[in-house]
């Protein structure tokens, strides 16, 4: 009988450190060619400014995993309906038989795996000396970005920028206490650009800053925009950066941050340095020089969901968490 796991159940068993390890292994398998992951279909619900996405993946290797996540992204939800922007449900199947193993809430899981992939990217691309981080956005995804970066770098300070000052102040107060870290809200984009690591997790459809102002040695994680006509990063940022993507086909189909500079003729697919999996698997180098500006661009992949869900399922079984049901 399948196991039903609520958001609270997932929160109870899933830690960021373990999520980073699981996602890193998922990307290694992706680079090794053991992952089957079709490009996700997207239904745009224009009347309500929403997206509906289906994200299936099979991961081979020692721990085979078969999963499907259905996720919706509705940016108006928090203000209009008091609901999260991102809502998801995940089905986990036994890859040997196809039998349903689990049905789990994927809202918290999505935020955690999105943070985890930036944790993996930061581990391989950010300077070892990085101690400060700026977070653009103050939602659930922004929170897990900061949590993940703190797992892989010994941070001393963080700043958060959001157009809604009350949200950034709430973020700063909460995360300062949660992480025992100096986190402050700011309205000064320039102060953000002084940090060693920048995490872009906003809902902005236009660039957040002028890329000519980036300091040499900066590392960026761009996870907020994931549609062809939206971008958090301007063309100058892309031009100046060593660009690493989560998955070339996905980014070239969905990432306006890259697609728009390509359309302008200022960038090309050939200038993408590597996929994250290639770096994790040792096929290509990560950071090679202290002064490099490195950029990890992610649109979010089903392999992240599958790897994280398998971890959640194993831990829930071991801890006796969740309820079995008969369908």
How would you portray this structure in words?
The protein folds into two domains: 3-110 and 303-324, ornithine cyclodeaminase, domain 1; 119-300, Rossmann fold. Strand 9, helix 6 (165-179) and strand 10 (182-185) form a beta-alpha-beta unit. The longest helix is centred in the middle third of the chain and has 19 residues, at 107-125. It is α/β, with parallel strands linked by helices and 327 residues long. The strands form two sheets. Strands 1, 2, 3, 4, 5, 6, 7 and 16 form an eight-stranded mixed beta sheet that branches. 38% of the residues lie in helices and 24% in strands.
Strand content: 15-25%
Structural class: alpha/beta
What integer is the average pLDDT? Answer: 96
Count of runs of 4 or more consecutive helical residues: 12
Distance from first to last alpha carbon: 8 Å
| Rg over alpha carbons | 19 Å
How many β strands by DSSP? 16
Quickly count the domains. Answer: 2
Helix content: 25-40%
CATH class of the largest domain: Alpha Beta
CATH architecture of the largest domain: 3-Layer(aba) Sandwich
Query: Shape, please?
Result: globular
**Which spans of ≥5 residues are poorly predicted at pLDDT below 50?**
none
**Elements, N to C (H/E):** EHHEEEEHEEHEHEHEHEEHEHHEHEHE
Largest sheet: 8 strands, mixed
Stated plainly, the CATH topology of the largest domain is called Rossmann fold
Topology:
Layout: E1 3-5, H1 7-13, H2 16-32, E2 35-36, E3 42-45, E4 50-59, E5 65-73, H3 77-80, E6 86-93, E7 100-105, H4 107-125, E8 132-136, H5 140-152, E9 157-161, H6 165-179, E10 182-185, H7 189-193, E11 197-200, E12 219-222, H8 235-240, E13 242-245, H9 248-254, H10 256-264, E14 272-275, H11 276-280, E15 294-297, H12 302-319, E16 323-324
Parallel strand pairs: 1-7, 8-9, 8-11, 9-10, 11-12, 12-15, 13-14, 13-15
Antiparallel strand pairs: 1-16, 2-4, 3-4, 4-5, 5-6, 6-7
Helix pairs in contact: 2-4, 2-12, 4-5, 4-12
